[in-house]
Queue: 4 jobs
Job 1
Amino acid sequence: MTEYLPLICGCLTAFAVTVLLMKFLPFSNTLIGHDRGRLYAEGSSVNIGKPTGVGFYFVIVFALTVVIVNIFTGFRVSLIYAMILIVAAMVTGVLDDRSKDAWNEYIKGAMDAVLALFGSFIVVYFFGRDFILGITGNGIELNVVVYIILAFILYIVSINAVNATDGIDGLSSTLTILTVVTAGIVARINGTLDKNGLLMGAALVAVLLAYLIFNFNPSKVLMGDAGSRAIGFFIAFYLMYLKIPFAFLVICLPFLIDGGLSILKITIGRLTKRKIIILKSIITPIHDELRKKHGMSVKKTWAVLVCSALVIDIIYIVICIIVHR
């Protein structure tokens, strides 16, 4: 128990500090912006004027917690580089949140590409290009170029799927908590969860729980791109750190269905100059479909998507346990 004391103290402190930051929003006029509303997003008008970009606060607390506690639990300089990139992803979001007009997709895409490229090289250089299949536990090592390409794609998909899912109160952060916890359990079953993996997962859960106190419907603050883009980057990095990158296809299925389909629909439409429009009869993200077409409240939409994610995660964990017996 003593060996985990720095981790426990660090996460409790991170939770408390994040609560205080969410409550008082220090230097908010300088650091964060206010929601402009989302074009075509169902019910987004209720968020106009709310403080957005508060992801700045909890991402900083998360990164500092990991760095400081890491010193006491077996220092790894590689985690420092990872935290720098996560903070960088947050900064790009802050700049967008604070801008008078939302940045276009090309600027965001270019920044995502740079971050994803650096993130891919860091994973390969410090943690290798081997991984395991989350269900069977079989180890595989890929060619370095192939791994970098797949890692790059994973970062891009994760950043944008999480960003698109962050459309209703509490949804993105709750799904992230389920993702991180499930990933940790699956990695533990497969024997790839070390102290630093536990630290990163626990620290993120701690700050997101604190954030949820103020973001659950009706929300007082919004994480903005500052939070969602950093979280998306972290999820991709975390799964590769735990050696279970392909678990993303299962654990992050709610993100892929809700936000990912929206990105896919927009991308195909623009690449084909709107000659091909998939899912014409479905509003994306899916949370907008549930709200507009099916008349669900924010809380009910949140409950449906979160419960669906919980069922998927439980089934996946049970299968992993059965296979590894």
Job 2
Amino acid sequence: MEQRLSGRVAVITGGASGIGAATAEKFVEHGAKVVLGDIQQGPLDEFVARLGDNAIGLRCDVTNEDDVAALVDLAVSHFGRIDVMFNNAGIVGAIGPMDTTPTSEWKFSLDVLLNGVFYGMKHASRHMKVQGSGSIISMSSTAGVMGGLGPHAYAAAKHAVVGLTKNLAAEVGSNGIRVNCIAAASMATPMVAAALGNEHTNIDDTLTALADMSPLRGRPGRADDIANAVLWLASDEAGYISGHTLAVDAGLTTGSTAGDPNFAEYQPIMREAGNKGL
């Protein structure tokens, strides 16, 4: 198998489970060294041990800029460089009507979902500018390009990630750095499992629920679907792609739904003043 990231070094936040872990496995499979950050120390240590010498881990709270800076600096000090930054860590965050949302929950949600991405972009670009190369990839969401798909804080943060992606791409393109993000639909991950009312470890029932909701009949979204997209954006195959928001959503943002569209059956052409037919 061709190794699409051979010799490259990637930093992944939220790397101990879900999309982060799936991406780390994919990157190592394709020849990369990975530096994983996560607030879950136990699962992080176990996962890094399973990946072997191609991976190291560091406890990282993305609401703390010093933690994110240390994670990025570890990649450079241990492996000599940073080629890929994947800002993946996230939570569902504050839930409910805007008029009942506690300000403290709003601020914490943005701290994780937006400020954590900003810190990753900031410190990765600091090193990548010196190198003259790099790929920065961040998790947005379908809730970051449409309304009504997520809670207010989540939607605001994910819309902001799209804006930051475009702005940073405009800043650092002349330094040889590409910046992109992914607008993902709900994927079968521990976070989505919990949001659907399942135990966070119950991925099987989550897959079944997502299959029923999917615009692609019977096809749920999986963590590996995002890992494949991140791999492509990180690789030379996407070498002319920057400032882009890649939807990985089974067509949800096109208006596709799990049911048939309104125009599923033929009827005579509708014309002016209620007339039909040619």
Job 3
Amino acid sequence: MMVAIEADLNLSLKPPTFSLLSQIEGLLTNFNTRAYIVGGFLRDLVIKRETADIDIALKADVLHIAPKVADNLGGKFVSLDERNGIYRIILPKTGGHPDDKQWQIDFSAIEGDIENDLSQRDFTIDAMAIDLNKIIQGVAISDIIDPFNGLQDIEKQIVKTTSDTVFKKDAVRLLRAVRLADELGFTIYSETEDLIRQNCHLIATIAGERLREELLRLLENTKSSQSVLYMDDLGLLTNLISDLAETKGVEQPKEHQWDVFNHSVRAIDAIDFVLRKGNWQYTDMKVLDYINWTSELAEHFKSKVSSGSNRRLLLKLAALLHDIAKPQTKIINTQGRIRFLGHPKQGASIVTSILERLRFSTRETKQVATIVYHHLRPVQTSRDESPTDRAIYRYFRDTDEVAIDVLFFSLADHLATRGLDLNIAAWRQHSNLVNYMLNQHKKQRNEIKPPKLINGHDLMRNLNLKPGPEVGRLLEAIREAHVCREIKTKDEALVYAHNLLTSKRGG
């Protein structure tokens, strides 16, 4: 399939984009420097694709100019790659809605003239440029500087390197090739695929924060599993996360349709399915009718966690990594049944190490590791009957910030376990469990709203206790009993605490 590009087609900017570029052009004029729009912004402008990322190449000292531009625009200045002289300005959102654009402007220094600079870039479709001053005036496609026939490759819908050395110069381009093909719906040129396979080991040389950014952008797509499998075929995946290599071919109990690796990859798409973001090829949409979905839940999974990440993306990352400890925990018991004892706990530890290496934030790392640690917890709260109030309270207490995330993860894990063999009765039971736990938690939150029955000073004064961890443990036990409607008054709380102490001390 090809996209026709008319030579006399004008590049039209939307008013907010025109306004921003005009501001930048005005600021750069004060520094008496030549500026070019390059890379993805220009490519997306040609194919009429919405973007909030602008790449600007300067014939100047970028480290001197970019921070001043950031100050004038009220943006945050970030160093992306000091060795290659790449810096970013992140502008605050202009509106208050989560879907409003947040502009990112990347500045880089021109080496030699603009044609030489473009020859250092990665892919032909991004090795194009246009003078910033001209694009504001409004120009045609024919004014684009295009030494590597990027426009032609846009028409062919292919991702192709500008030279055989692009990956050696900057190995993050290995992941970017897959991500670009994924985002644009393009195909990676066969010779470029060969180059990726030859250089896949270079991923180990990339700074973690750059890998993190590319990985998160890959997970944005609603068919992320295809990109993950493609990365694996190209040799990138296990060079990025070596622990995943051990999960390949690891057999699972009979209820599992796939081995550990393929189950984990399919769980990524199952996440998007249960979050109403994608399809699940192994069953129809009707199975979602059993899950109570609300606008509140939709907003929950869209909520930002850190720069470039939200709960949905981190849940998909957890899907890829949730069974990463299964290979080393696998046993076959005396009945011949496969077991993976302790794999959630060991997995959480491994995941923490992986995400720290990839420079995920502390909050991101904690969320993903907690999901992995507790991913079996929902189905363990109950077998044949509804979970008790105490079990629900303890679940939400222990899973804390990711309690809802873990519940929906368990649903996706169920789908990725059964595949085509999904039992509707078992699925309905699991969905009802999730619905029940969410509803009961709301009721328990209402129980917690009244003032505390008792505080630490009351306990120390009435039970002759000294300050210390024991007071905290008693207060938590009282809070739990209060939520579970076992006690209602301060006097009952004191009696409850006294009985706990007596029991602990042997009467």
Job 4
Amino acid sequence: MFSEIPDRIYRYQRFSALSLDALCLDKLYFSDPNVFNDPLDCQPAIEPDSDNEALRLILRTLIEQRVTLEVLASLKNANIEGNNANIHSEKQAHQTAENTIQSIAYYATEPDIAPSVEEAERYSLANEIKKELLKQINRGVCCLSQEYDNPLLWSHYGDQHHGFCVGYTLNRNPKPKINKVLYGGLRTIKTSLISEAILNKNSEAKEELDKNIWLRKAEPWGYEKEWRIFNTVGLMDSPLLLSEITFGLRCSYPVMYSVIAALKPRDIKFYQMYFSGNSFELDRSEADVDLLCTELPHKSRSGFEAFGPPHEE
């Protein structure tokens, strides 16, 4: 298992107008987990180890929490706030939860769904609890790695070495929290844990619940040595300190020049990857920024412009 809290974490990227914009503005993109390349990522399986009455209470609480916030936000946009807004949002939330639970109970009577009505209702309640968990915990995720020299990460995320790898430290005030991804185990979350976290507001249970939703991945992804930070979905100010850029083996000089010229005023180190001896390992050396900025941008010249007109013998 990789070490706790690394000094630096890295984000592999392809070069594009968007990635250059993000560097210049010192922002990070936080992705919606629903678009991750691994469809199992952030998709827990709910195991109902509570009775149906407890499952109804969990589902009711989750729905009421979500709908209350949604209605209040909608009313606020319409400049409606205060006690009446609170009463209306609570009424809407209660009715939405009640309608959902009644609908589940009704469809559970279908004879072909499960061996019994109770089991059918149990399955549907667990399924709705999963949906509600993912609806109300609307987070954006930024994925980073502990390594800058991982050949697979360069190929998968660094545009096959045509891109670059951005290095960050945690030297900010306040110090950002980064979360280590856990590899292996099961996607299962028991409803007893959800009940303890949501209904009893147990902080340890809440931390365990979040960890199992947001930080557990299949064992084969372990090569990424991934760490995550969370925010709302979209382009957000970086909570990390940008400290270095490493260019891939195939990264072109114009791309390197563009990134260096954009960031040169900041205290950032620039590196280039290279082959390490006869092995498959990668290493890096500091880029010659002065030489690169002297040779570029290049200006094309004709033979006449470069050497003057030909001399007659």
